[in-house]
Amino acid sequence: MKSRIIPYIFMIIFLAAHFSRGGNNILAVLTLLIPFLFFVKQKWVIISLEIVAYLAALVWLYGAYGYIQLRIATGDDWIRLLVIMGGVALYTAWTGFFLRSDKIKEVYGMNG
């Protein structure tokens, strides 16, 4: 089960760093509190954490769009930025999907 949770925690750290870099430190701190929900062994927790991951992927895509527009406007290379941020968005979405394992469903009471 830890192998399913650790990638999610890394995703949260990346997201908090993204918010912090954007100057939104309050949101960064609140984001860092999200993994503590893993200690609550309820069905709604996994569903909520999965939704958070998918919304976080959208945050990365929205940020990528803004940064790419800025790079295009200044004439800088934007393809590498697209690949990197697209990869981060995919990783983020993957961490949400990764929470659907049978072991996690068993621990959080999602079987049957």
What can be said about the biggest beta sheet? none
Q: Which structural category fits the helices and strands?
A: mainly alpha
Overall shape: elongated
Q: Identify low-pLDDT runs.
A: none
SS elements, strand count: 0
**Total domains:** 1
Radius of gyration: 16 Å
Order of helices and strands: HHHHH
* Count of alpha and pi helical runs: 5
Share of helical residues = over 70%
Distance from N terminus to C terminus (CA atoms, Å) equals: 19 Å
Average predicted confidence as pLDDT: 94
Structure write-up:
- The chain is an all-alpha fold.
- It has one domain.
- Helix content is 78%, strand content 0%.
- The protein is built from 5 helices and no strands.
- Helix 1 runs antiparallel to helix 2, helix 1 crosses helix 4 and helix 3 packs antiparallel against helix 4.
- The radius of gyration is 16 Å and the shape is elongated.
- The mean pLDDT is 94.
Describe this protein with a few key phrases:
112 residues, mainly alpha, 5 helices, elongated
Topology:
Layout: H1 2-21, H2 25-33, H3 43-74, H4 79-98, H5 102-107
Helix pairs in contact: 1-2, 1-4, 3-4
Summarize the structure.
The chain is mostly helical and 112 residues long.
